Amino acid sequence: MNDRQSLIRIRKALFSDMLFQFKQGFYFIYLLISFIYLLILGQLPFDFADIALPIIVFSDPSVLGLFFIGGILMLEKDQGIIQTLSVTPLKTKEYLISKLISLCLISVLAVLLITALSDIGSVNYLFLIVGVILTSVFFTLIGIMITTKSRHLNAFFVKMIPWMIILVLPCVLLVFFPKEWFLSVYPSIASLKLVYGAYHGISFAEASLSVTVLIISNLFLFKKAIIMFEKHMIYGGL
Amino acid sequence: MINVRNLQFSYPKSSKEAIKDLSFSIAKGEVFGFLGPSGAGKTTTQRLIIGLLRGYGGSIEIMGKERSMWDYNFYEKIGVAFDFPNLYKKLTARENLKLIGSYYRSAPKDIEGLLVRVGLEGERNKKVEDYSKGMKMRLNFIRAIMHDPDILFFDEPTSGLDPVNAKIIKDIIVELKNNGKTIFLTTHHMDVAEQLCDRVAFINEGLISAIDRPKNLMVQYGKPMVTVEFEKFGEVQSEKLPLENLKDNPIFEDILRNHRILTIHSQEATLEEVFILLNGRALI
Lengths: 238, 284
Ligand SMILES: Nc1ncnc2c1ncn2[C@@H]1O[C@H](COP(=O)(O)OP(=O)(O)OP(=O)(O)O)[C@@H](O)[C@H]1O
Ligand SMILES: [Mg+2]
Hints:
The complex is a heterodimer of chains A (238) and B (284). Chain A is mainly α. Helices cover 82% and strands 0% of the residues of chain A. Chain A has one domain (2-234). Chain A contains ten helices and no strands. The longest helix of chain A has 33 residues, at 46-78. With 284 residues, chain B is of the alpha/beta class. Chain B is 32% helix and 28% strand. The longest helix of chain B has 16 residues, at 163-178. Chain B is globular, with a radius of gyration of 23 Å. The model of chain B has no long low-confidence stretch (mean pLDDT 91). The interface between A and B is medium-sized, with 25 and 29 residues. The structure holds adenosine-5'-triphosphate and magnesium ion. The site of adenosine-5'-triphosphate (ATP) has 12 residues of chain B, from helix 1.
């Protein structure tokens, strides 16, 4: 009974989130970004695009997760929506799950669209979709945590920079050690491997390791994000 | 309905106690008013009871259970209108109510009726960002009551409203009370407190200095006198007379018999005066 009510509330929250993001112009910005990706891919010589596509597909949910969630939460905070929702039966957990799903959905749709429109050989769609979902959730959770500690959007951008470096820079290691499986214990590398592997092949063992690493990190971050969100965005007062 | 005992609270990172020691009870069907100057602790107390601040001392029993023992079901039963409107700016009044209302198990039934009630029917499809402050306050108010909660918390419900719209809100509060709802409001407007509240508590610097019916306070701290204004030989004159045995007072008898009375006023104190008397400071 309780689970059912919870699912109903998440569904309603998702509807609200999508309407909010649409009206605030997020989808429009998003369409624009996807269009730019496609333009870039179209300009690249074929064997280059071969590498660029997975990288775009990796960076898309990451950037979306990190930046969009910051913008969305700041707008909701400024308009007092978070305060209003905090006195409804919608739980923090449900509120955050809905945010995660709303951003996952656009990432998956965009990645499928970009992949379909660019002409690349065989694609493992299962790995691709799983990879994009896990990547999106990972970066969105990081974005939520940074937002809860930021008073304004500017503060958010400043705090983001070190996190970007910490998360994205180590991915460069893959260029030098493409075969080192243990690099996958680093969540952002696990993400990149999974997505890259969806286009260029990946062993089942390696894919499993990446998925496991990401699921564990995401569960841990989710718990942490709930605590931080309640502490700073709800009980912190105004 | 609400039973607060020796409530204490300090904001984190603040050395000063925002709430020092509060005790009061609110009965079912009562309109209870918190009256006090800015910074007295009105909003803090409400937020503690609502559950938006944690880590209080003392006890808050509400609907038969300690506040800290309640789960999210608590929010099915209460309605809150904060002191400034909190709504989706880019959405219309109707969309706002639909979306926020959808989280309740008893989803709001008569959104249109509520919009009509507060005079927003013509604006229902306008984006909230194009609303005036008063329109947002009215929308925010019906947002708080739309799911038919048992206890309502209003923080300055009439602030920013013109007299006509303030009257509409006050009328709805009376109607809610008549339907058995329990209402806890804060205000620094005397007239709101006087007209609406069954009982008021004066709060100042985190302490309560008096709790009573507004009338009782006004009479208790007023003087038992009447002022009579009358016309005598074409001139307006006035007399201050003790209330006691007024009918046998020869001066009063003379005025009644021989002159035209213009006004008669009893000299009870205003709530404002009582507040100053008790706290040594003004309300605003
Ligand atoms: N978020 C906060 N952090 C630290 N101190 C706070 C915070 N909010 C309020 N206070 C302090 O707590 C005390 C009570 O404030 P509160 O907001 O409850 O007053 P109020 O009676 O609602 O005033 P007003 O009429 O201005 O709304 C004040 O001294 C205030 O400075
Ligand atoms: Mg206040």
